[in-house]
């Protein structure tokens, strides 16, 4: 039986490569690390459906990718026959989750991707209602907290004239810009597709499935298709080419780490294997 990991890796790679190439040839990508551009709508928002960040694919799926992946994984794991319900598969999910958290949310302080942005020359940018922006200390972005003239007067002492029309309660969230802003979406979508493809393999080694598990497998395949579509649209419309490449490589690396978990994903008997091969 073909290895689902290799098939999905080939399809995902093709989607990212072709999407990135298209974005370069037709100049469709938005440099999300440019503070002068990132707070504004994509220039193609009105003519290209997926360039609009408010599209349902982005809002309901891509931004919640690991939640969907986790939910479907456990639905599949719980509904699968006992011989494929192994601890190794849960440990793989736990390791993949740790990789996701470390890169995008927290790693003994700022996430690894946030640290990379700062190390590569990034700045903490705070956009003002006028369209101008203020550069703040990196710690203001690391805290992920809203900033306002009333709560952080020391940060706005040199902008009294610009802030005069504003309410002291006006606040906004500073974001890290410039530097190398790895595509977190490409990273997570790549990790998710490869992880789900790998989790299909134990079920495909069985000669038959319980009815409820069939629904889990259908959901798995559908979600794989959604993640590949999301990878392609992200590659076409967002981030610089290098940021997409590094996001993809980090996703593949994160998945490869899950392959180092010892043990087997099934506890099939010789009789099970014979029945599977006969189908």
Automatic annotation (TrEMBL):
Topology relative to the membrane: Multi-pass membrane protein
Biological process, per Gene Ontology: lipid droplet organization; lipid storage; phospholipid biosynthetic process
InterPro entries per the UniProt record, alphabetical: FIT
Transmembrane stretches, start-end: 59-78, 90-108, 221-239, 245-265
Keyword Membrane appears in the UniProt entry: yes
Cellular compartments per GO CC: endoplasmic reticulum membrane
Keywords: Endoplasmic reticulum, Hydrolase, Lipid metabolism, Membrane, Transmembrane, Transmembrane helix
Superkingdom of the organism of origin: Eukaryota
Gene Ontology molecular functions: coenzyme A diphosphatase activity
Subcellular location field: Endoplasmic reticulum membrane
Protein name: Inositol phospholipid synthesis and fat-storage-inducing TM-domain-containing protein
């Amino acid at each position: 039986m073909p290895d689902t990991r290799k098939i999905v890796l080939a399809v995902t790679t093709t989607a990212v490569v072709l999407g990135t190439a298209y974005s370069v040839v037709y100049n469709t990508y938005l440099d999300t690390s440019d503070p002068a551009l990132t707070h504004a709508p994509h220039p193609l928002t009105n003519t290209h459906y997926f360039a609009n960040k408010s599209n349902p694919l982005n809002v309901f799926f891509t931004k919640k990718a690991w939640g969907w992946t986790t939910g479907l994984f456990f639905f599949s794991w719980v509904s699968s026959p006992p011989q494929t319900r192994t601890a190794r598969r849960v440990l793989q999910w736990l390791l993949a989750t740790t990789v996701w958290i470390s890169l995008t949310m927290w790693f003994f302080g700022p996430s690894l991707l946030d640290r990379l942005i700062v190390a590569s020359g990034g700045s903490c940018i705070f956009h003002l209602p006028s369209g101008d922006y203020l550069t703040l200390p990196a710690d203001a972005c690391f805290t992920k907290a809203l900033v306002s003239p009333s709560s952080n007067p020391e940060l706005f002492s040199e902008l009294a004239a610009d802030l005069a029309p504003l309410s002291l309660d006006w606040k906004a969230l500073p974001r890290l810009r410039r530097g190398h802003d790895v595509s977190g979406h490409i990273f997570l979508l790549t990790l998710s597709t490869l992880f789900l493809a790998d989790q299909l393999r134990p079920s495909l080694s069985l000669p038959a499935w319980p009815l409820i598990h069939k629904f889990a497998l259908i959901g798995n395949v559908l979600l794989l298709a959604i993640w590949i579509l999301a990878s392609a649209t992200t590659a076409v419309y967002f981030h610089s080419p290098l940021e997409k490449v590094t996001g993809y490589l980090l996703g593949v690396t994160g998945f490869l780490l899950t392959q180092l978990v010892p043990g087997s994903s099934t506890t099939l008997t010789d009789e099970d294997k014979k029945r599977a091969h006969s189908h």
